[in-house]
């Protein structure tokens, strides 16, 4: 399989974009943008976990942890607990939970897909790819597994192949916000911010588009220098001070060593 090779200017933008993603998500206390899906775990009667501040997220970890302790072999409980652990940045623990769930449900597609996501979050990309591919059935392909495989390939630098899989997933599940969001973030990684914005806007307007989709859209808009617009998008769900902090952090990062000017100059020359 061919691996995407970037020019130096693209490498610079990719590094800056990746740093901005991590910086923005660290401020808002959300999960990684990579993985099988950008969807969220939701508690009954409460906000999506992705929209929670860090303090509430820790409460969700405790709640799901207690439920998992009572029923460690329950599929839904294990998946939810692993997901919130990833959102809290506890990737090794999330992987440990998913290993146990996979043992209890060795042929379940949802479980294997989530196990692959946990492996990827923990940094074991080859094993993650193997796990997701093993769960797939070519005669009846699962759109979620296609999206999961694409997200892993994106992390391995194989974005062209990842996008083929995202589009196959969309053929099966048209207008799926999680797949469109993954596709949008794939374009961030190869510096095509206009395409990234297009897909993230589409994802954000769909019923399944959650807080993380909109925050990723705010990020992409901010990376293009439209900070007021980015703040407006971020403020739609986050408290005003938190949205302002996110955008201010992004501005600060891009202003260091004249980063934004360097990006614009390299785009003109590229």
UniProtKB/TrEMBL annotation:
Tell me if Signal is a UniProt keyword of this record: yes
Q: From what superkingdom does this record's organism come?
A: Bacteria
Keywords attached to this entry: Signal, TPR repeat
Natural source organism: Jiella endophytica
TPR repeat ranges per the UniProt record = 143-176
May I ask which residue range the UniProt record assigns to the signal sequence?
1-31
Could you tell me which InterPro entries the record lists for this protein?
Answer: TPR-like_helical_dom_sf, TPR_rpt, UCP035836
Q: Does the keyword Nucleotide-binding apply?
A: no
Record-given protein name:
Tetratricopeptide repeat protein
């Amino acid at each position: 399989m061919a691996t995407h090779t970037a020019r130096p200017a693209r490498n610079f933008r990719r590094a800056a974009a990746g740093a901005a993603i991590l910086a923005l998500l660290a401020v808002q206390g959300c999960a990684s943008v990579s993985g099988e899906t950008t969807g969220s775990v939701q508690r009954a009667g409460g906000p999506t976990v992705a929209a929670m501040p860090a303090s509430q997220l820790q409460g969700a970890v405790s709640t799901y942890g207690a439920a998992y302790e009572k029923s460690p072999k329950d599929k839904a409980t294990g998946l939810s607990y692993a997901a919130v652990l990833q959102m809290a940045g506890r990737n090794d623990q999330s992987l440990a939970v998913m290993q146990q769930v996979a043992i209890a449900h060795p042929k379940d597609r949802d479980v294997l897909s989530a196990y692959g996501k946990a492996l990827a979050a923990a940094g074991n990309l080859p094993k993650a790819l193997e796990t997701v591919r093993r769960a797939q059935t070519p005669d009846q392909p699962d759109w979620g597994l296609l999206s999961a495989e694409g997200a892993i390939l994106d992390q391995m630098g194989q974005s062209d192949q990842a996008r083929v899989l995202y589009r196959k997933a969309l053929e099966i599940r048209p207008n799926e916000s999680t797949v469109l969001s993954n596709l949008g973030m794939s374009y961030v990684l190869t510096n095509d911010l206009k395409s990234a914005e297009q897909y993230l806007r589409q994802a954000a307007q769909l019923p399944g588009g959650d807080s993380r989709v909109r925050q990723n859209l705010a990020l992409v808009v901010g990376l293009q220098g439209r900070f007021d617009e980015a703040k407006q998008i971020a403020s739609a769900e986050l408290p005003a001070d938190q949205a302002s902090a996110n955008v201010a952090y992004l501005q600060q990062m891009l202003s260091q060593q004249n980063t934004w000017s360097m990006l614009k100059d390299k785009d003109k020359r590229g």
